[in-house]
Amino acid sequence: MPLTDPYRINNEAIQEPPSSMLGGLKFLGPGFILSASIVGSGELIATTVLGAKAGYAALWIIIISCLAKVAVQLEFGRHAILTGETSVQAFNKLPGPRLKKATWAVWILLVLQFLKVVQIGGIVGGAAVVLNLLFPDVSAYVWAFTIAIIAALLIFNGKYGLVEKVSMFMITMFTLFTITSLVSLQFTEFGFSIHEVIDGFRFTLSGEEIAIAIGAFGITGVASDEIIAYNYWCLEKGYARYAGVPDGSAAWKKRAHGWINVMYLDAIVAMIVYTLVTTIFYLLGAAILHGRESIPNGNAVIETLAMIYTQSLGAGVRTIYLVGAFFVLFSSVYATLAYWTRVFTDLFGQLGWFDFSNLKKRKNLVSKLAFLFPLIWACLYCYIELPVLMVLSGGIIGSVMLLLVVYAGWHFKYGRIQTLPSGKFYNLIFWISVVSIAWVAVYGLVQTFG
């Protein structure tokens, strides 16, 4: 059976979009992978650390982080359906100076992605610490490389369907357990009131809390790399192929509009999931850890965070918590590796280092990168051994990358000919998203250096 290129758009795969929301639910999928990546290190580590240090005071930035970036994500999804271009192909069409075959944006993206390697190493380390707590006879270093190999084996064949199914399973597991923990918390001494939650919108943070908040904003919610990744998942799910070649005809516009609506539904469902889970992680950290000296640090991060579950559900669930924590962290490793194999292959292709249009060569490179990246991540963890610092460092880089992503989204919308213009409500949400991201960035800079 010949290989099918998910990025090559033709009219052979045309399919009419579903006419109802119920029918649209059958075509969800990219959001599952996005949620598996989002609900990971940022929620378990960065969000909870912020809650532990700031109490309820920084709840507002967590909510903004989850909601503010969605419209930019939608613009990347729209662009994928309307053009059939991958993220890096679209970046390579941004105006500005070029170096050899690639524009400045592609080179910057390449550098920033490489810098985030430390962050993912921290996530691998966190998952390794969890397994070491479950099976102390095996060191965290051994578990780090074991995790790397398992992730590689699950990703190396590059099949979208497997990535989607595994992601769906993992987000279901940790979402159910996290909700159960929050409900149970209300029956303990750590239960909180609605007034304390409202107090989380005071908009007042100390300098140290602002620094953590900036890192949390870069990681929680839809981060910059996850916005870029959403383009690939929409293409591989088939939204653009179902719409057909963008020829500007009335029939194509009707199909494209329908599949864009399906994409919107997919993104909204994902947003509800990761906003809910992110908020719960923050509230648990604020309720149980705030005011204590046992703030997560170094390799002790997972053991300290275990207090969230043992205090709310009882000491007997420590093992269950650790299993849940592993799903949270490994889901992020898994989905991130799936994205990295795609974006770096795309980057290398746009830089002219290999033929991206050759499907066989592309799949071979994906397979090689699927093993190379996890081994690098494991090595970095074993060398640095500070998961929290490693994860938060990625948040700062992600915040810088987010500016590039916002600019790209703006250019997709206003700098290129719109074959299917968006409505006024969508335009309003888009600008709220852009302004929110800029506002939080300026607020953080003023509070930190002012």
Written overview of the protein:
It is built from 20 helices and two strands. A hairpin with a 2-residue loop joins strand 1 and strand 2. It is globular, with a radius of gyration of 21 Å. The chain is mainly alpha-helical and 450 residues long. Strands 1-2 form a two-stranded antiparallel sheet. The longest helix has 40 residues, at 250-289. The chain has one domain: Hydantoin permease (Orthogonal Bundle). The protein has helices at 21-25, 30-38, 41-54, 59-68, 70-83, 87-91, 104-115, 117-134, 140-155, 160-185, 194-198, 207-219, 224-237, 239-243, 250-289, 301-313, 318-350, 359-384, 387-415, 424-449; strands at 98-99, 102-103. 74% of the residues lie in helices and 1% in strands. The model has no long low-confidence stretch (mean pLDDT 83). It starts with 20 loop residues before the first helix and ends with a helix.
Helix and strand topology:
Elements: H1 21-25, H2 30-38, H3 41-54, H4 59-68, H5 70-83, H6 87-91, E1 98-99, E2 102-103, H7 104-115, H8 117-134, H9 140-155, H10 160-185, H11 194-198, H12 207-219, H13 224-237, H14 239-243, H15 250-289, H16 301-313, H17 318-350, H18 359-384, H19 387-415, H20 424-449
Antiparallel strand pairs: 1-2
Helix pairs in contact: 2-10, 2-13, 2-15, 2-17, 3-12, 3-15, 3-19, 4-12, 4-15, 4-20, 5-13, 5-15, 5-19, 5-20, 7-19, 8-9, 8-17, 8-18, 8-19, 9-17, 9-18, 10-15, 10-16, 10-17, 12-19, 12-20, 13-17, 13-19, 15-16, 16-17, 17-18, 19-20
Mean pLDDT: 83
Strand order of the largest sheet: 1-2
Order of helices and strands: HHHHHHEEHHHHHHHHHHHHHH
CATH C-level:
Mainly Alpha
SS element count, helices: 20
> Looking at CATH, which topology would you report?
Hydantoin permease
Question: First CA to last CA: what distance?
Answer: 63 Å
Q: Based on CA inertia axes, which overall geometry fits? A: globular
Tell me the structural class: mainly alpha
- How much of the polypeptide forms β-strand, as a percent range? under 5%
Low-confidence runs? none
Helix content percent band: over 70%
Quick one: how many beta strands? Answer: 2
Q: Give me the CATH superfamily.
A: Hydantoin permease
Rg over C-alpha atoms, rounded to the nearest angstrom: 21 Å
